[in-house]
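Work Package 3 (structural annotation) set out to generate three-dimensional models for the target panel prioritized at the project kickoff. During this period the team completed the workflow that converts sequence records into discrete structure tokens, so that structures can be stored uniformly alongside our sequence database. As a representative example, we reproduce one entry of 140 residues exactly as it appears in the project archive.
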Amino acid sequence: MAKNKEVADTDDTERDQSRTRGLIPFKPGQSGNPKGRPKNARSVVSNKFLNSVMEDYEEFGPAALQKAREDDPMGYIRMVASLLPKEIVVARRENEDMSDDELRREIAALEGEYKDITGQAVSDIASTDSPEGRDDDTRH
């Protein structure tokens, strides 16, 4: 049986060599398809697809979302998570350039944003997460 495999391997090698014989590889920067894809071809298809999805959503979307949420909550959460950005980059000024008053105002603004989002004050979190607020003795 090994002999048949050797013959098959030889046939494949010869066939591959005969198909590539005489071909000249592309030079750097040269395309095998010089005219390329027509301009906007991808965006035209994408726009048509997204328009169809939008029309479908406008008619059936709210009911479909409700059904997905009720029938498959984990799938619904995965779908929502897939729509969120993978990484959020927040650009802030370096705190070295800020005066003490500017830092205090920035901290107060961030604490206010946190309270608006969570409904809980930062000071409440800090007091329950600090070692003094714990019942167990995990302090070193």
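The helical segments are 2-20, 41-71, 73-83, 100-118, 122-129.
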